[in-house]
Specification:
The complex is a heterodimer of chains A (about 550) and B (about 625).
Chain A lengths: L4 E4 L2 E4 L6 H7 L23 E4 L4 E3 L10 E3 L3 H16 L15 H8 L16 E2 L5 E4 L8 H9 L6 E3 L6 E3 L16 H5 L5 E3 L3 H8 L4 E7 L19 H11 L3 E4 H22 L5 E2 L4 H10 L13 H12 L6 E8 L3 H7 L4 E2 L2 E2 L3 E4 H10 L21 H4 L6 H10 L5 H6 L11 E8 L2 E9 L1 H12 L6 E5 L16 H16 L10 H8 L6 H5 L8
Parallel strand pairs in A: 1-5, 11-12, 11-14, 13-20, 14-17, 19-20
Antiparallel strand pairs in A: 1-2, 3-4, 3-5, 6-7, 7-10, 8-9, 15-16, 18-19
Chain B lengths: L4 H17 L2 E6 L2 H5 L2 H14 L4 E2 L12 E6 L11 E4 L3 E3 L7 H10 L9 E3 L2 E3 L6 H4 L17 H6 L4 H9 L2 H11 L11 H9 L7 E6 L8 H8 L1 H15 L3 E7 L3 H17 L14 E7 L8 H8 L23 E5 H13 L1 H5 L9 E8 L5 E6 L4 H8 L9 E6 L5 E4 L9 H6 L8 E6 L4 H15 L5 H18 L7 H15 L3 H5 L2 H20 L13 E3 L9 H5 L5 E2 L7 E2 L9 H5 L5 E3 L1
Parallel strand pairs in B: 1-3, 2-3, 8-9, 8-11, 9-10, 12-16
Antiparallel strand pairs in B: 1-4, 4-5, 6-7, 12-13, 14-15, 14-16, 17-20, 18-19
Helix pairs in contact in B: 7-11, 7-14, 8-9, 8-11, 10-11, 10-12, 11-14, 18-19, 18-22, 19-20, 20-22
Classes of the chains: A alpha/beta (about 550), B alpha/beta (about 625).
Chain lengths: ~550, ~625
């Protein structure tokens, strides 16, 4: 046993399969600083903040040095402190230092480390340039002035998402992150997933902020503002207010009422509609054998990725609108006789939804069905701005007439959720045991690729559940090489919507927490299957009669 | 296509005989340096005159003896003494003619081809030393040529001449008399160290690759020579490409590689075309290809052109560039020997290292160990340049002292100036001073004094050189060539350059030297790759050796060498000034005024320090102070 230890700052730390010393150091409870290390990305080794000193005075980067039994390293020597301070000083010397007006104020890694290391002066000329801000995208805003070239965005875009919208260009101190031909990001293959913003340690890539315009709508007297809240949002808010992560839907609803929303609904209702429609579509395709596999269409970043990279697969993509759009269409239909102006707002974990809302397919007479998409992060900001003490506010319930949901709709927020909801719908075993055993088919879990086979009648249905567009890309290549699947669920963000680009950024542990919280909400939900939601029957017999196709389906193949 | 060893040997005999049959050989240097000074016209002129005179001349090596007694006119590789080019060598006498122009060819033919004499006017004649034979010229006397043994002596574009001169004998020996393990042992024993700068033992590197479990291995040659003023590798690639290919093939055989990549900078178009030509020739003969000479060994060569990034000389950046990615170093481990090109175990050596291999295999490790010191045996090519008499490309045994190189081979300083320093190892190296002159040039000795051999640039500087400016020059280079990946190199070199620029501009501040050293310490210890780790060396070594010069710039606002324009003030000595007004008339900004026949005055606030007044003055009255 003794030979599988490393001495870190004179503390023996057992090596248990860690890929590098950095992980070992962090396991030992030492928060070694880094800008460019992410356990799910390749090791880049550029920030040089995680340098450690060995007992002979050698300096090495902890992120890229494998653990070595018996080695002795030190993480906080005078030399290391000097180097780290110098690196921070160098980064700050041409960095925009307008911290108080930066969106990342208080959440910026550079700011945090500069504070931790007590950088009070910068001895070099301030050469921060004043580059234009790229706000061409509906999803994200890029501000080069705040970029520290850690490469996290480049790697997530290329390695995890296979999107390749951004890369490094130029060299030396002229190096920067850019799109091909330096086009605005909106003209690049960017799918708006926002994972770059999620990993950016500074304010160089942030979520497009639509809250300011929304505030104005909320204060208009003759405007009725209606909100729908996506499943993943409710499990990613509590931590930001100093509470432990759990489903805080009741508090979110109460907060939204305080903010001035007139009616508040749950996108899980829309998800129930999606389940019913998508299950029908799937069964029809299974019967006809046409356009199999069926790809899910809930995720707008995936839809855009498919349009750009695999347009030939668009006939396989479900014609169902996303839950947000289905529900948006239902809300607008419900309110069509209202005398007040209706503003439909979606609170989403997602930056790509901002783009989806603006798609021409989802407008009526030039007016978007969803007028505003605000992300979880923007919602949190609005709650803070309004001075709401979130931990104190008492739970409230969503409004009628769309006041009921099912657990199937709630689990849409995590990878595998859509698939499980559809299986719940098409499975002939409607027993509680049958329902519970679904959790063990392999559909749950945060793995990027899950494959499972379930019975439909006497038929084996082969299903793939992927999250992360890179995984989708790889799966499509397998399908093109002849592998057979009947249903493929794709979510662009690793882990699904709980880890969406619009969520407060977090690591893998946060995903585990959020996922557990969603399944918990499902468990306490009275209705487990979408068809058990009493509202569904009402809708199909009422508002949706004769309008199912118009309100709930979309044709992505039709191009203007 | 050659199918056996015997066929190659028989071909060698034929070609050797053909060379012998040539009564005399005129070797016109046809490499970048001499071509620039017009050597191809000289070559054409030789051919034309010989033909006009009805003298049988051959430009191609003929098979058989039909050209018995003909004059061979060949385009040879670089002799190294480029400043005296175009160079023409006459064999078998070994006469070297310098600065030959087309109109001189007649005279040379009359004297040395038709006759057996020497055209005195065109031979080496410098500082009272006259020499007709190349080997008697001081520049060549102390050189030992191993990797450059053929350079200047055979036609660089002909595989036939290479074979005639014993080329591919080492490959034969390797394939037919040695196992891969024998080769690894021999290279290990020879103690050959990588000539790219680091001096890593080549045998150990090969052995590490050979021992990898992954079956696919690659051999890669780093021909991305980028140090300012260095052209050792170019001269080998242009002048003796087959030697390098042979070395690479032996490496491939030793480590079990079937594919070899040569990474050459695109700024070396002739090297690229000569290498391609050499590969084509060897492929036609069956020396490169499937089942070389009937053995199980097969090899395929690829040439990749680099797009002009100095950092691509770094191993992982080079392999990334070959793979079509951004040329940016990556973290190690894994090292190139474990996961190099296309993530396969890769032998990556530079041109000169591979060029050493055939001689070692052919002559044995013991022979090689006989050259130079035991820990760094063999020779090293250097590009000798700067304020010295003889500049050019040289090859000397490792361990030769700087004094020998600078004062014997280099002929000492120009214009009777004093030696001040020599920058060795280019932008990654350091400067050595008078006290270091008797230090042997080898990997370990240089490391001890904070310098490195690097790829072999030697820039000799005299007393008029400003060392702060030298540091600024190299920092400017490194800063431009940093890939931009890691913070200390990208931002740190930028700040070092910023500080050096303000010092030479007279705006240095108290604390700048300390700040430079602090930056240098951070960069050297934390940068990701070798480029960054060594980027500060020129600054650190100039501060170490010439701190007083830095201080003079910062505190007295003076440049002791008088080179930093912004620190010079021009004044007119009223005692010497005759009041002729010539200075005022030459001043482009009207900074000089005065009455005719009385002393003129320079308004320093207007003066742009161009020096036009000083060069115009016939009486030496305008002085730099």
């Amino acid at each position: 046993m003794a030979d599988n230890f490393m001495m870190i700052d004179n503390i023996p730390v057992p090596i248990a399969g860690e890929k590098n010393i950095l992980e070992l150091i962090r396991k030992a409870g030492i928060d070694l600083p880094t800008f460019c290390y992410h356990s799910e990305l390749s090791i880049y080794g550029a920030c040089r903040m995680c340098m450690v000193e060995n007992k002979w005075g050698g300096i090495e980067a902890a992120c890229s040095t494998p653990p070595k039994p018996g080695a002795e390293i030190y993480t906080n020597t005078p030399r290391l402190r000097k180097y780290r301070k110098m690196i921070l000083e160098l980064l700050l010397s041409n960095h925009c230092r307008d911290c108080t007006t930066c969106e990342k104020d208080g959440k910026c890694k550079l700011q945090e480390l500069a504070g931790r290391y007590g950088i009070r002066t910068v001895r070099f000329e301030n050469t921060a340039a004043d580059h234009d801000i790229d706000d061409s995208s509906l999803s994200i805003t890029r501000d080069r002035n705040k970029c520290i070239l850690c490469g996290d965005c480049v790697r997530v875009c290329n390695e995890v998402q296979h999107v390749g919208a951004i890369e490094f260009t130029n060299r030396g101190s002229k190096m920067r992150v850019a799109t091909a031909f330096d086009e605005p990001i909106a003209n690049s293959p960017c799918v708006g997933c926002g994972q770059c913003a999620a990993v950016c340690p500074t304010g160089a890539i942030v979520i497009k902020d639509d809250s300011v315009r929304l505030w104005n709508e909320l204060s208009e007297k003759d405007v009725k503002v209606i909100a729908q809240i996506a499943p993943a949002v409710r499990v990613a808010v509590a931590k930001e207010f100093g509470m432990s992560e759990k489903d805080v839907m009741g508090k979110i609803v109460a907060s939204l009422r305080r903010l001035g929303f007139d009616e508040i609904f749950d996108t899980a209702t829309g998800a129930d509609l999606t389940v019913l429609e998508e299950a029908n579509e799937f069964i029809e395709r299974l019967k006809s054998g046409e356009n199999i596999p069926l790809f899910t269409s809930c995720c707008p970043a995936w839809v855009r990725f498919c349009e750009q990279n695999y347009p030939e697969l668009l006939p396989n993509v479900s014609t169902c609108k996303s839950p947000m759009q289905m529900f948006g269409a239902v809300i607008k239909e419900q309110e069509k006789t209202s005398r007040r102006k209706i503003i439909s707002v979606a609170v989403m974990p997602c930056t790509a939804k901002k783009f989806e809302a603006a798609r021409q397919e989802f407008t009526v007479d030039g007016e978007p069905i969803i007028n505003y998409v605000i992300t979880t992060q923007e919602l949190i900001q609005m709650i803070k701005e309004a001075g709401i003490v979130f931990s104190e506010i008492e739970n409230e319930s969503i409004d009628m007439p769309f006041g009921s949901i099912s657990g199937a709709g709630v689990i849409f927020g995590v990878t595998g959720g859509v698939t499980e909801a559809v299986i719940r719908r098409i499975s002939s075993d409607k027993s509680l045991t049958g329902l519970r055993s679904l959790a063990y088919t392999g559909v749950r879990g945060l793995e990027g690729v899950k494959e499972l086979t379930v019975k439909y009648g006497d038929r084996d249905v082969r299903i793939a559940v992927v999250s992360g567009l890179g995984n989708a890309d790889a799966l499509i290549k397998r399908i093109k090489e002849g592998e057979h699947f009947d249903l493929v669920e794709v979510m662009a963000c690793p882990g699904g919507c709980i880890n969406g680009g619009g969520q407060p950024s977090g690591g893998y542990a946060d995903r585990v927490e959020r996922s557990a919280a969603l399944y918990e909400s499902d468990r306490v939900c009275a209705n487990k299957r979408s068809e058990e939601n009493p509202l569904m029957m009402q809708l199909y017999n009422g508002l949706l009669r004769g309008k199912v196709h118009e309100l709930l389906h979309v044709d992505y193949l039709k191009k203007e | 296509m050659l199918k056996t060893r015997e066929e190659l040997e028989s071909l060698r005999q034929t070609y050797a005989c053909s060379v012998k049959c040539e009564k005399k050989r005129i070797l016109v240097c046809a490499e970048t340096g001499c071509i620039a000074s017009g050597s191809l016209k000289v070559y054409d002129s030789f051919v034309k005159i010989l033909k006009d005179k009805g003298i049988d001349c051959t430009t191609e090596l003929a098979e058989g003896v039909s050209h018995e007694g003909a004059i061979g006119v060949k385009r040879s590789a670089c002799h190294g003494f480029c400043e005296l080019g175009p160079l023409v060598r006459i064999e078998p006498e070994g006469i070297l003619y310098t600065k030959v122009k087309p109109e001189d060819c007649e005279e040379i033919i009359e004297a040395s081809i038709i006759g057996d004499g020497v055209a005195e006017r065109l031979i080496y004649n410098r500082n009272g030393v006259k020499a007709a034979k190349q080997e008697d010229i001081p520049f060549y006397k102390k050189q030992t040529r191993v990797v450059r043994e053929h350079c200047g002596h055979i036609d660089a574009t002909s595989v036939k001449e290479y074979i005639a001169a014993g080329g591919y004998k080492a490959l034969e020996k390797a394939l037919f008399e040695m196992t891969p393990a024998d080769i690894l042992d021999e290279i290990d024993k020879s103690a050959l160290r990588g000539r790219g700068g680091g001096g890593f033992p080549t045998g150990r590197k090969w052995r590490q690759v050979a021992g990898q479990k992954e079956p696919v291995h690659y051999v890669v040659c780093n021909g991305d020579e980028g140090d300012p003023g260095a052209f050792m590798d170019r001269s080998i690639m242009e002048g003796d490409p087959h030697r390098m290919l042979e070395g690479m093939m032996i490496a491939a055989y030793a480590v079990g590689a079937k594919e070899a990549y040569i990474y050459v900078r695109a700024e070396y178009p002739m090297a690229v075309s000569r290498l391609q030509n050499a590969i084509n020739q060897a492929e036609e003969l069956g020396i490169i290809g499937e089942n070389v000479l009937g053995t199980d060994f097969s090899i395929k060569f690829h040439i990749n052109k680099g797009a002009g990034a100095f950092v691509c000389g770094e191993g992982s950046a080079l392999t990334a560039s070959i793979e079509g990615k951004r040329g940016m170093p990556r973290v190690k481990p894994p090292r190139t020997v474990e996961q190099g090109l296309f993530e396969k175990p890769t032998v990556l050596n530079n041109v000169e290292t591979y060029a050493n291999v055939p001689s070692i295999i052919e002559n044995g490790a013991d022979w090689y160990l006989g050259i130079g010191p035991a820990n760094s045996p063999g020779t090293k090519a250097f590009a000798l340049t700067g304020n010295i008499q003889n500049t050019g490309l040289i090859e000397v045994p490792m361990g030769t002292t700087l004094r020998d190189v600078i004062f014997d081979i280099g002929g000492g300083m120009r214009d009777g100036k004093q030696f001040k320093a020599v920058q060795i190892g280019g932008p990654s190296g350091g400067c050595l001073v008078t006290k270091d002159l008797d230090m042997p040039l080898d990997f370990d000795s240089l490391k001890k004094v904070g310098a490195m051999i690097g790829s072999g640039g030697l820039v000799v500087m005299d007393e008029d050189t400003c060392m702060v400016e030298v540091a600024r020059f190299f920092m400017n280079f490194t800063q431009n060539e940093s890939c931009g990946k890691c913070v200390p190199c990208r931002e740190g070199t930028k700040r070092m350059l910023e500080i050096l620029e303000r010092i030479v501009a007279g705006n240095g501040r108290d604390g700048d030297i300390e700040l430079l050293l602090e930056l240098a310490d951070t960069i050297s210890n934390t940068a990701l790759c070798g480029l960054g780790k060594t980027a500060a060396m020129p600054v650190v070594s100039t501060i170490k050796n010439f701190r007083e010069e830095y201080e003079a710039h910062i505190y007295q606002k003076k440049c002791p060498a008088g080179q930093c324009k912004k620190l010079v003030t021009y004044q007119i000595d009223p005692e010497l000034c005759k009041g002729c007004s010539k200075c005022a008339r030459n001043c482009p900004v009207g900074a000089i005024s005065g009455e005719i026949k009385s002393p003129f005055v320079i308004d320093t606030s207007k003066c742009i320090k161009c020096g036009a007044c000083a060069s115009a003055c016939n009486f030496g009255a305008v002085k730099e102070v």
